[in-house]
Design a protein that fits this description.
Blueprint: E1 6-10, H1 12-15, E2 30-31, E3 41-48, E4 57-63, E5 75-80, E6 86-90, H2 104-107, E7 117-121, E8 130-135, E9 146-151, E10 157-163, E11 167-173, E12 179-185, E13 193-194, E14 197-200, E15 204-209, E16 215-216, H3 218-228, E17 238-245, E18 256-259, H4 261-270
Parallel strand pairs: 1-6
Antiparallel strand pairs: 1-2, 3-4, 4-5, 5-6, 7-8, 8-9, 9-10, 11-12, 12-15, 13-14, 14-17, 15-16, 17-18
Length: about 280
Amino acid sequence: MTPWAQTYHMNGRSLALLLLLASVKVPLAQETSTPERRTPAFVEKVSLDWDHSGVLTTFTLSYQHRTYGAGDSDRLVIRRQGMKPWILLNNDDEWTSLKTEIPPALLRKNLVSSERMLFVSTSPGPDARTYLILIGGGYGCCVGSLTVITYGEAGAPKMVFHAVEHLLGEVLPLPGGDGIALIGQPSDAEARALKNAASYDPYRVYIIEGDQPSRYDLERSRAYNIKYYCEWAGPTYNEKYIAVNVDPGQWGAGHCRAMTEAQFSTYREKHPAQFP
C-alpha cells in the first residue's frame, strides 16, 4: 500500500460475492499495492460535511484508464483533513451522468449540485446519515453498475453496496431514519421487447442500515413487486416467465400477469391488438 493513500480496485466479475438468492453480485473493495501510472484527468469535484463533523470532505471524480475524454469517470478520491485519501477505481464500467440513468424524481433528491454524484440522506434532519451513490453507464445489452458509499468509524469512507449490473429505480428512507432502501432491477428485460410484454425482471429491495453492508429483503421485494410491478414469480430475472401487462398503462399484480411461453402464446392469440 502506498504511504499516502488507500487504493481499491473494483472488479465485480471476478470478485463478486453472491448475496441472498444470488441475483446481484456484490464484491467488497480489494486493497492493492499496484501503483497507478497514468495521470488522472479531472472530471468533477464536490465538497460537503457529509458526516456532520464540522469538516468538509472532498469527493473528486476523474478518468484514468479511459483515454478518449468522454467525460465519464472511473476513479473516485475522497479526502478530508487528517485522513489518508481514500481511492476507489471502477473496473466494471464508467460512472456516468445521473440524468441519463435514473428517474427525474430520484435526481431531485440530490443534496448537492452534481452531474455524476448522487448524495441522499436518511431524513430531512440536520444529523441524518448521508450516502453517496454512483451510477455506471450501461452498454449493449446490459445496464451499468451501482455503488453506494457512506462514512464509517471516524468518518472513514465505507462501501456498503456494489453490483456489477443494477438499474436503480428508487431510494427510500427507512422508518426511524437509520438507513435507506435501494429499489431496482438487475437488468432491463431486453430478452423480450414486445409492447406490453417483457421478460420477467422483478424489482429487488436492498436494505442499508447505517454503515452496515446491504442485505436483500425478500418479503419487501415480494410486496413491492405485487404492488407496483407484476404477479410474483420468484425473486430473480427469469426468461421462462413473461410479464404481460393485461391492462396497458397500469401495473401491479392486478394488471400484470407472469405467464409461461405457452400461456402467453394462447393469450396473445386472443388479444393481438395488445402486442403490435
